[in-house]
C-alpha cells in the first residue's frame, strides 16, 4: 500500500477488524504503523492511517499505564496453573480446538493460544521453534496478556472489546511484540452469554489476511456450540446456579432454565444461598429492609411470587430455605481468596454484589467481599492485578488501590490519576469536580 493510495485506511478496509486486505503491501503498511506507533508514544496523537479499533486500544493501553517496552508477567505457574486450567470451562473444548486449529498452527509455523476472560494465557501450543521465539516475550501459559497489562494484542483486545480482531505488526502496543501478527475471537458461555476467554492464532505476517480471522472466529463458534451440547453438571435438576456479581438483577439457572430475577428476589436468593439452614420471616425482614415499618405481609407476598417463579419444591418455609444446593459466583471468589489464589479470585470477581441493593445484609456482604479482595490485591503488590481493579468501574476512585499501583507502576498516567484523587480528598466540603470542557 503506497501513501498516495488513500488518506485513510478505513476507506480501503471493508472490515475494520481485519488488519490487511488482499493485495495490500504488508511491508509498506508495517513501516507506516511503526511511524504511527512512535508518534503516539511520543506525542499521544494517532495518525489517521491507524484503524479505529487499534487507535482506541492504544488509548486504553496508555490510560492503563502500559509502557511500550514492557514484558508480560507470568502469574500462574506449575500446580496453580494446572488447577486453574482444569476447572476452567474452556478445558472442555480444548480437544476440539486442537483438532481444528492445531494442524493450521503446525503447518504454518504458528501458535495456537487460549486465554481466559482476563487475558491470562492458559494454553500456548504449536510449532516448536515458534514457541521458543514466543517464550522470549513471555507469550507462555500463565502470562497476563490483557490490554491493561500488555497493551494492544489480539487475545487481550478480543476479550476487552468482545469482538474477533486481528492485530498486525506495529499495531501491537508493545515493541517486542511488533514482529508478530495475531488473530483472536472471544468464546462465550452458551448459557449466559458471558465471555469465557478467547482463541488466538499467532505467527508471522502471513496471518495478516481476512481468512485467518474468519477461521479463528469459526473455531470459536464451534467451541460455543460444543459447550452447548455438553451436559453441564451445574444445570442438573436438583441444583441451582446464582450469578449476582456486577449486576443489579441476578441470574439463576435452575434445572436448565434461565431465570432473570427482580432486584428484591435477587436479594432474597443471595441471602438464602448464604444460609442453607434457612431464615425466619423476622430474620429476612431485618436483612432486607431498613424501614422497620415494612410488614411481614409484604415479605410473604414477595416470597409467594418468588415461589411461583422458581417452580414447585424449591422454596420451603418455616424457616424459609432453598431445597437445592446453590452454586454462586460470590462463593467462588470467597473460596479462592481463602486459598490464597488472589489472581483467580480477581478473575472471578466481575463487579460488586448487586451494586444497587440497599438491603442491609446484602450491603454488608458486598462491602466484605470487595474489601477482602482489594486488601489482598494491595498486599500482593502485583501491578497488573492492581491496574485491572483501578481501571474497572468500581475501582476508578479507589484511592488506596491507586496509591498501591503508583508504588509499583509509577507511570505518568497513574501519577496523574492519583494526583486527581488526592486533590479531591483535600478539597473543601461542597466542592465538585469541574465539568470537562
From TrEMBL:
Residues 256-322 form the OmpR/PhoB-type domain. It comes from the Bacteria. Keywords: DNA-binding, Transcription, Transcription regulation. This is GAF domain-containing protein. It comes from Streptomyces yaanensis.
